[in-house]
Amino acid sequence: QVQLVESGGESVQAGGPLRLSCAASGYTYSDICMGWFRQTPGKGREGVASIGSFGRTVYADSVKGRFTISADNDKKSLYLQMDSLKPEDSGVYFCAADPSRRNPTTDPDDYNYWGQGTQVTVSS
């Protein structure tokens, strides 16, 4: 059973950095698709960034140039480095994985394993 546990969420000032981590277990292959998503009250789950096989990445337009997704070689640790944070980046951030997928994707419907989420609050 795939398990994902996020950490690192906290309250920060706008313009500052924050790094999220996700500890993953329950699968063998390393060239799987993983992603970060965020959700705010009244809105659906929004794809933020994804990493697939060969380190290919995709980002939401709203975070390009500010966020960086990375993972250890065995894909058992996933990270999201967030820089130049804005108040609109606030939300609950989720880590997700799909061991059957190789291409990165920010569509939440493409994932079948999710963590419990970690809260990020950016104040102006």
Query: Radius of gyration, rounded?
Result: 13 Å
| SSE pattern, N- to C-terminal | EEEEEEEEEEE
Runs in which pLDDT lies below 50 for 5 or more consecutive residues are none
Mean pLDDT: 95
Helix fraction, binned, reads under 10%
Largest sheet, in brief, is: 7 strands, mixed
Please tell me about this protein's structure:
With 124 residues, the chain is an all-beta fold. 0% of the residues lie in helices and 48% in strands. The protein has strands at residues 3-7, 11-13, 18-25, 33-39, 46-51, 57-59, 67-71, 77-82, 91-98, 113-114, 118-123. Strands 2, 4, 5, 6, 9, 10 and 11 form a seven-stranded mixed β-sheet that branches. A hairpin with a 5-residue loop joins β5 (46-51) and β6 (57-59). The mean pLDDT is 95.
Question: What is the gist of this entry?
Answer:
This protein is 0% helix and 48% strand. The chain has 124 residues and is mainly beta.
Task: List the main descriptive attributes of the protein structure presented here.
single chain; 124 residues; mainly beta; seven-stranded mixed β-sheet; four-stranded antiparallel β-sheet; globular
Question: What's the layout of helices and strands?
Answer:
Layout: E1 3-7, E2 11-13, E3 18-25, E4 33-39, E5 46-51, E6 57-59, E7 67-71, E8 77-82, E9 91-98, E10 113-114, E11 118-123
Parallel strand pairs: 2-11
Antiparallel strand pairs: 1-3, 3-8, 4-5, 4-9, 5-6, 7-8, 9-10, 9-11
